[in-house]
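If you are new to this repository, start here. Below is one unmodified record pulled from the training split, so you can see the exact layout before writing a loader.
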Amino acid sequence: MIGTVAEDLGGGLDIACAFRAEGLRTLFLFDVPAKSVELSDAVVIAAADAVEAVDWLRRNGCSQIYVEFGSASVLGAVAEAMSVDTVPIVPSAPHRRRAVYMGHLFDGSTLVADLPRVLRASLAAWGPPSQDH
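And here is the target side for that same chain:
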């Protein structure tokens, strides 16, 4: 089972919808539940405390953990809680039009670094970039 921790509702819903679109039975939780719940193929928790959410997911049978994050401190805290030294970072999600090519982020064919600062912030609010294949 895949467990996902999202920093906010928007990121959590994006991930839950992507899992569902791939046919996974997906449970979306607005916070870490006080007790166990009936689990599905994937569980997404939009939680303020990422470490608490990861702990709950692991105790409830999630063998794979995905963290949707916007801050390196969240990733570091989760890595420490899971006792891992290496964490793969994927700056993409297949359902987006964004891609990383030669170390540069593109939105479609537009280099994001060339966009005005306000527009770059707006793109960031829509979620992580994707890898076009």
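Two things worth knowing about this chain: Strands lie at 2-6, 26-29, 42-46, 64-68, 98-101, 104-107, 110-111. The chain has two domains: 2-81, 91-133.
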